[in-house]
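Re: the multi-chain job from yesterday

Posting the exact lines I submitted so nobody has to dig through the queue logs.
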Amino acid sequence: MLYAILCYHDEDFVGSWSKEQDAAVMSKLAVVQDKLKKEGRLGPVARLLPTTAATTLRKDDPPVVLDGPYAETKEQLLGFYIIDCENLDAAVDVARELGAANPGGAYEIRPVGMFEPGARAK
Amino acid sequence: MTDVAWIDAALTSARPQAVGALLRYFRNLDTAEEAFQNACLRALKSWPQQGPPRDAAAWLIMVGRNAAIDDVRRSNKQEALSDEAAISDLDDAEEEIADRLDGSHYRDDILRLLFICCHPDLPATQQIALALRIVSGLSVKQIARAFLVSEPAMEQRITRAKARVAKAGVPFEAPGAVERSERLAAVAAMIYLIFNEGYSASGETSGIRMPLCEEAIRLARLLLRLFQSEPEIMGLVALLLLQHARAPARFDANGEVVLLEDQDRALWNQNLITEGVALIEKAMRHRRSGPYQVQAAIAALHSRAARPEDTDWAQIDLLYGALEVMQPSPVVTLNRAVAVSKVRGPEAALAMIEPLGDRLSNYFHYFGVRGAFLMQLGCNNEARVAFDRAIALANTSAEAAHIRMHLDRLMRDCQPQGLSPVNKK
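And the result, structure tokens for all chains:
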């Protein structure tokens, strides 16, 4: 079974870490990731840019593009895509296309800061 | 996570919201700050044992408020309460907080806190010092160090600024839409000033002053989180990130300035560039341009060029042209002229800056740039005159050293083989 682990934390707090504190956390996480990688059990790992860089597409009719992260709580996170786009406009276009195929709910579009493709066996 | 450094980070990140809310309760800056200090002391005592609360800001507001109210009661009744009594409702404070805190105030609380630091009566240096003290919570010692002045002098500067703010009265009513956007603009300008204080540091002091840039970025990000749909605030954050991304390449080992075109681009911080570019793209979708966005777009074009010769100078020329319309200033024209020299050659650039001579007659960069254009045109004597003037006007030894390097090049190139004018078309 594949599992996704979604990371939540207080962005203000994480943003207040010094460079050294941030690096310390990342290197502790790297130890765990390396172990999983050696075992061929690690899929892609991503660190997203802050929510200030987020754009949300509400899949209403017609769809509405809003600044900021998806903030409603009545919907739940059901899945995610990683797409490669020239810029935000292109990413919003992809989201619109997906949204047309599956209306309702929303897509939050967030630039990826750090991306590790991972090393899953088979 | 109970390490003191981590608690410090939590207190720092909670500070603007907590002090902002306490200021709304007590309507007095000193009381609010004192209440927050008290809450921090209690956090340092209780968090290592009980672990940090889920919502640090809410905890600090609650505890700070209770402590301050107890202080008032104590002094009114002139009887001492035991410490236990004073903090009796701490344990389950968190439970109550959710109900008692009104989240909708949060945005205006922080904006108010930032805004009182931008009072128009306060000179820029006092605004910045006050914001770093009140909003960022830097110690007077830290601020004094960053401003390269003595601690007592900084103490005095902050005390004066606080007195002025108190006299002017803090606006407590919730701002209307127009007023809110005016406050936002004032606060953005103040954050930009903080950044510039750090960014304009010389090589010797850049290490000491760098934290100012980082703090400005933190405040700008905070502001953007509160006002997520403001393209100019996106532009501000993007601008600061893109400028700061170049920090590791801006000075050489001797602390001398390294010009943009000579910088080792491998040293630029790609994480900050990615975030800055993402933000400027997002801002431009609004089609509501402004000076921060334009400047960020210029910085983004520089950061996207793998080599100096890949720079899209034509686009930069256009952007400076737009900036000249929004924010006419001889310095903007001077910057534009540099782009023009790359696109249309030094002759056109020189013609462009000629009319600025009167207004920039004491501006170091004017003569540095003018000298460079003249040098490219082969007017060596005039170039030397301009460079000499630039050295006389240099604010830092690094600036002077940089111009001297040009002069040396001029001397070298003037040897027998002569100078072939570089005239890029």
